[in-house]
Write a structure and sequence with these properties.
Elements lengths: L15 E4 L6 E4 L7 E3 L6 E3 L6 E4 L15 E4 L2 E13 L2 E10 L3 E8 L2 E7 L5 E4 L2 E4 L2 E20 L8 E9 L2 E7 L4 E9 L1 H8 L19 H25 L3 E9 L7 E22 L6 E11 L5 E15 L2 E7 L1 E24 L20 E9 L3 H30 L15
Antiparallel strand pairs: 1-2, 3-4, 3-13, 4-5, 6-7, 7-8, 7-13, 8-9, 9-10, 10-16, 11-12, 12-13, 13-14, 14-15, 15-16, 17-23, 18-22, 18-23, 19-20, 19-22, 20-21
Helix pairs in contact: 2-3
Length: 442
């Protein structure tokens, strides 16, 4: 049994050559039987081909600049091979753009629109979008917001068209957009037509039709999707997972395991004192050591605290200092308090081993008029002033977790700012953008 022969590709439509009555140039018809008017690429004259004969409709002698996509060039977009058969140059006030009519004998006509280097693929609609409000339409469940309105004029015609087109022809236009797509309405004395234009990335057009890369289009086109939009949604999901992981890590590793606690008396004469707490065993390869000192009856005074965590084996010293201070008084607004009876300090990256904590401390009094005095207040002997020193270990600092979360969120925040800048520039091109408030510099 012989294998089946591969199917041959469908034959290309025949090209019919005509002679321009004005300049004698050869005009090729690539959609013969469908074409009504054709623009001569040499002299710009408009020819009528409806009855099999070539009739001069509009005579022109203007020098013709070749379009970016030469007529007859083929390219594949969205899985279909299209041939460029017509070219229009249009304008609205100072705004100009190019339109290419594409043809495929099995799929009909489509449009390629080039505005400031940005490309769109247009499909003529056979149904009218659903009107919602003055500023919006819906099509296929998606909402489109009004963006442009005006009158478009045909400035140049080259190639074949399925309607009677002429230089100077005008239509009223309206555009409604959503990211990636634009609904365009054209209204003339004869008809109203709708086209759905889909944004086509520059790299796709370079590959499909060999056009020169346009680079960055700025300000963005009305329906140009933000390059940061998809990234933001994906980044939010990844960033959220990272934040959950960091939170879980902080719960598991961020707590403090208290190892020892000791009360130390405070000399009422205000002299410096020294005490050693230990041994303190640290089992982790590296850990954070937290020292928390509480002064239970501290009032109108403070305690200076200096700590030395000494490795018993190597005598390596990790030093830290702190203070607990609290004041109270009364003024015209009533009683007030300031400070705290607690002092917390942390020592980072302490290696495993057995340690002694040497505490140097000194109690101080404070008077209402700002002078020291030796007797009275919280350091009276009857108060038995003391400090309570607690030593613990942990793995993570809360500040480190916060910084890690900030670093995880930073790319997304930058992307959000770039996205907002892009959207502001895009919407700023609209005929219906919100008016700046009074006093604004915009």
């Amino acid at each position: 049994m012989q294998p089946e022969a591969p199917l041959a590709p469908p034959p290309a439509p025949a090209v019919r050559a005509l002679s321009c009555p004005n300049c004698g140039g050869t005009v090729e018809l690539r959609a013969a039987g469908h074409t009504v008017h054709v623009g001569c690429q040499y002299c710009g004259s408009i020819l009528d081909t409806t009855d099999g004969l070539v009739k001069l409709v509009t005579q022109a002698h203007a020098a013709q600049v070749p379009p970016d996509i030469p007529l007859g060039r083929r390219g594949t977009l969205f899985g279909v091979e299209w041939e460029a058969i017509g070219y229009l140059q249009r304008s609205q006030d100072y705004y100009r753009w190019d339109e290419y009519l594409l043809f495929n004998p099995y799929h009909g006509y489509r449009w390629l629109v080039n505005a400031r280097g940005g490309w769109s693929f247009g499909t003529m609609l056979t149904r009218v979008p659903i009107w919602q409000t003055f500023s919006s339409y819906t099509l296929g469940g998606a909402a489109y917001t009004r963006f442009f309105a005006g009158t478009a004029t045909v400035d140049r015609v080259v190639g074949e068209f399925y309607w009677r087109v002429a230089v100077g022809e005008t239509v009223k236009t309206g555009d409604w957009v959503r990211p990636g797509f634009m609904l365009s309405r054209e209204t003339s004395d004869r008809e109203e037509s709708w086209t759905l234009n889909q944004w086509v990335p520059d790299r796709v057009m370079v590959r499909a039709f060999g056009v020169a890369p346009a680079g960055k289009v700025w300000p963005p086109l009305p329906h140009q999707p933000s390059p940061w939009g998809t990234w933001l949604s994906e980044g939010a999901m990844i960033g959220g997972m990272a934040l959950v992981f960091l939170l879980a890590l902080s719960i598991v590793l961020g707590g403090t395991r208290w190892i020892t606690s000791q009360s130390l008396p405070v000399a009422v004469d205000g002299r410096e004192q020294n005490a050693t707490i230990g041994p303190i065993h640290l089992s982790g390869r590296y850990q954070r050591v937290q020292v928390r000192t509480t002064v239970p009856r501290l009032e109108n005074g403070w305690v200076d605290l200096d700590y030395s965590l000494v490795d018993r084996r190597t005598q390596q010293v990790f030093a830290a200092s702190g203070a607990a201070e609290r004041y109270e008084g009364r003024d015209s607004d009533g009683p007030w308090t300031e400070g705290s009876r607690d002092s917390d300090v942390s020592i980072a990256a302490v290696p495993a081993g057995d340690y002694d904590l040497v505490v140097d401390y000194k109690g101080n009094r404070w008077s209402e008029n700002g002078t020291f005095y030796p007797e009275g207040g919280w350091m009276e002997p009857t108060n038995a002033p003391q400090i309570v020193v607690e030593v613990g270990s942990g793995t993570l600092y809360g500040s480190n977790v916060f910084l890690a979360m900030l670093m995880a969120a930073l790319p997304w925040i930058i992307g959000l700012l770039l996205h907002l800048r892009f959207e502001k520039a895009r919407k700023g091109e609209s005929d219906f953008r919100p008016k700046p408030s009074e006093g604004s510099d915009d």
